[in-house]
Structure formats: structure tokens, C-alpha cells
Amino acid sequence: MWQQYCTALPRTQRSFTGLLKRANSRALATHVEHTEPGVADPAAYCKELVRKRDYESYLIGAFFPRQIQGAFFALRAFYVELASVQDTVSNSMIGKMRMQFWRDAIKNLADNRPPRHPIALALHEASQKANLPAYHLRRIIDARDAELHTPTHLTIESLTAHAESTSSTFLYLLLSLLNLSSSSTFSHAASHLGVAQSIQVLLRALPYHASRGRMVIPAEVTARHGVRQEDVFRMGGDAEGISDAVFEFATVANDNLLTAREMLKESGGEGGRVPAMAMPVFLYGIPTRDYLGRLEGVNFDAFHPSLQLQDWKLPWRIWRGRYQREF
Measured between alpha carbons, how far apart are the two ends of the chain, in Å? Predict the structure, then answer.
């Protein structure tokens, strides 16, 4: 069958390289085709994408200065797009093609030659208004690329490194957007907050990942509590030891959240509150704190149905946190 198929191809296409190039072209053509309508208004496309797929960030974006809100939504749309590749491609090869598309796009931004893709166009516009270090963008791409092959982690240390390359790095970009990247205090606090946020996202998505046969809690944690992955995939929150493993994993998130908070307090600024200019970045601590509190309320049953519902008080809590400058 393979021989017949190759014989039917033109001679120049009878190679694995030729097949790979055509698959690459088809994948990218489909990718661009789906985003073509957004090219006319990249900023609106990015804002709507974030509203639909990352509502918490949509709420937080409203508290950035109006003149850079477009840049915020461009960065978050870029982040969401990369984070979703793993679950939207049929195999890792197509995922790697998508990652290469974004590597090339970031490279071309510096040459004022962004590809005809709404997120790339919005990023290009943002880069004209603010300093957005390309190495941060590339670091996120590289981390998501590696995730295609190793979607789970054996140790907390490995997961922390991944979180620092994704969530924390996104927060570094926001600090750059606000011209605050020179502050070591803000950067270190953002590093810890990014780790806490990553773990919160994984715990919230644990039922989804378990339904797809993936265990997002590091193996060293599940092993300590005698958790059998197959039991979690079949029984969810009723699996032996899973609530204890969730508790330990959530404790790591909470410790990082507290560390970020204490670092900002110890900086001596404004009565221990987060400086007003940096507060939009640290608003990400509020959804993280909110979820961890709700998780504790159901005795660390990450599969509890109530945790799959959006907290209707979250918009108010983010608003209050912004004006009280606390998270």
C-alpha cells in the first residue's frame, strides 16, 4: 500500500522530507485560515479569544492602563494559543510545526515582518509601544514545545522549572509592559506567583486530564501517597490517596503564593501593600488564592463538581484586590 501510494506521487515528492513539508504547509495553512477573519482587527481578535478561553485574564486585563490593554491581550492571546496546542493537534509533529511557526513569527517581529496572523500582528503592534524581550517569548515557546513530548512531570522540581518558563515568564513580560522589569523584588515575587498559578491551573484541570489518561500531579507526590494512576482515571476523587496527593500539591502552590506576598510586604513599600503600579500583574494571585480556598472547602477533592463552576464573586474580588492592593 505504501509503495503504491509513493508511486502515485510525483517523483519530486517521493520522500519523507517531501511528505513532511506538505504536512507542514497544510497544518499552517489551516492554522492561518482559521484566524484570517481576525487579521482586519488583531486587537479585537485577541481580546475576544482571551474572553472566551481565559476569562480570569479577561477580567484582569481591564485593570491595566488603557493605553497598553491591547498589548496585554496580545500577550495573553499568545500565551493561551501556545498552551492549547497540546490539546488541539492530532500528533506531536503537527504541534512542533506550530511551535516553529511561532519561533519564526517572533524572529520576524524584530524585522517588522510579522506573519499574517492576528496574534502575531497584535504582538508586533505591542512591541512598537513597549519593550517586550523576545527571549521571554521564545522561552515560553520552547517550554510548550518540550511539553509536547513530556506532558507530565516526575518531580516538583521539574514542574517548578516548567512553571517558571511559562507562567512566571508571562508575568515577567507584564512587568516589562509596565516598565517594572528592573525591580528584582517584583521579578522574584512574580516567579513564585507564577509557580503557584501553574499548580492551581493543573489542579483545576485535574478531572479533564484524568479523563484523557494524564496525571498532572508529579509522580513523586502520588507515589508518596500510594496513588495508582489507573484508579484515578477510573474513579476520580474516590481513588485511594488522591486527596492527600492533592493536598500536598496544593500546599506547594500556597507556599509559593505566601512567599510572593511576603516578598512584596518586606520590600517596605506603602504599608506592606503591593505598589499601585505593579498591582495589575499581581492580580493573578487572586484567582489562585480563590481556587485554593475553595479546594480546601471541599476537603481537597479536586473532582468536586463545585470546583468546575466559575466563582461568580471573582470579578468583585479582583476589583477589591486592585483597590486594596492585596492578593
Answer: 61
Output the nine-digit C-alpha cell for 175.
512587568
Going by C-beta distance under 8 Å and a sequence separation of 6 or more, which residues neighbour residue 37? 45
Global model pTM greater than 0.85? yes
d(CA 34, CA 50): 16
Instruction: Report the C-alpha gap between 270 and 290 in whole angstroms.
Output: 24
111-129: per-residue pLDDT in tens?
899 999 999 999 999 998 8
Residues 174 and 72: their CA atoms lie apart, in Å, by: 7
Residue 283 sits at φ, ψ, to 5 deg, of: -60, -20
* Nearest C-alpha neighbor of 215 from the set 249, 191, 184, 192: 249
Helix (H) or strand (E) holding 327: none
Integer CA distances (angstroms), 327 to 123, 158, 223, 254, 279, in order: 28, 26, 33, 12, 9
